[in-house]
Amino acid sequence: MGRDACRLVVDITDWNVFLPRGAPISGIQRVTLNLLRSLRRLGLPYLIIRHDLLSGYHREVSPSFLDYDFSTPRHPSERGHMHTHNRYTNSYLRSVIASMWFRVKHGLKRFKENPLDCFTTRYVPRDGDMIYLAGAGWDASLTMEAIAGFKKQANIRFAAEVYDFIPFISEVYHERLGRRQFRRWMKHTRGIVDTYVCLSQHTQRDFARFRPVLNLPDDVRTIVVTPPQEFASGEVFESTELPEETHRRRYALCVAQVFNHKNGRRVIEAWRTIGLVADQRMSLVIAGATAREEIVRAFGTVPNLIVIERPNDSTLANLYRNAEFSIFPSLYEGWGMPVGESLWFGRPCLSANGSSMPEVGGDMCDYFDPHAPGELENLLAKAVFNADFVAARATQIDQNRLKSLDDYAREIHAALTDEAPTQPIRQPQTNANESTLQATA
User: Fold this and answer.
1) Is the distance from CB of 305 to CB of 268 less than 8 angstroms?
2) What is the CATH number of domain 7-224?
3) Average pLDDT for residues 423-432, to the nearest whole number?
4) What pTM value is reported for the model?
5) What is the pLDDT of residue 249?
6) Which of 22, 344, 405, 424 could make an S-S bridge to 74, C-beta 3.0–4.6 Å?
């Protein structure tokens, strides 16, 4: 199907979880945002749509939407609190009742159009459209419900991104509601989704593993389009904008939450252990959504620890750029973004060896088993106390083997519109073993 016949329509309805309350977007939405910016920069044809909570239907979104910085708190919606109907979260009956009660309670309230939403006209599907649900499908039940109607109006296709199967991995995920929400979404995709876009080869293998449990057909189509290693941000802050502690000492960087599957607690434990042997002579920076108070309650005083809570993209880019090296100890990832981002800035990364992480870093990273006692401590001690170790690893980072944002945009556009990529896509080689985790679907 040619480029003129097929229009790529990127659905960002999952952003409704963030935009009405002005919250910063998550890493999943950042992948989508950077994809859209690259599509615009490359001049590839695309359209953005999102379900409008006020009108009750999908509307087109102006490209000017992409000019905002969504990594910082955004001006909340001027409409007031908008109810988001998500049939995957509660029972269908409870969702309908809650939606009806909201309409009765707020029926006379005047909701204002928020200019920051950048909505234009109502989306009307046309023959050849490929609608791509690029973000968190489990937060976009309104799009899933609309697709059947769109398919009656025009000859369209529908693709959904599958990031990972973390909710089904009992060792790393323990939220019952989240597991139910994800399972309901995956079952709802049956007969609606034409193509599942897997974030990594590991995710595609997990898809095949869980397909029978989800009652998906044997001939379901899955493709793999891996994200870029490139990190995109706005204007990078000067170093003086970073915490003063990062100016006085060299530092190692860990971009991860501490108490979930990102496993930041493992880095803090290892850091305390090697600190008992000798002065690290550098600081450990934890950047993520975990507050310093939570870390202090769990670990007490940790020597040379700097906590930067929810850094925006510019601050995070500068943290990568000035770090000696990074550590990523996650137990499971659909795609370990901090691994690739560290390499993009030329900073060596000590990475866990499970799930998709070896796909990201290939032979340019040093890997450790996050479950094995002493492995991270030994590797961390080499990086902290041996400057030659870090310097040698930095020289092994081959920028030409890392995928850029534009590479990713070309590959996604080609895969979903049946166009051959204009340039070959580079991938690091994989040389580490994956760990096997227990699954609970």
Assistant:
1) yes
2) 3.40.50
3) 46
4) 0.87
5) 81
6) 22
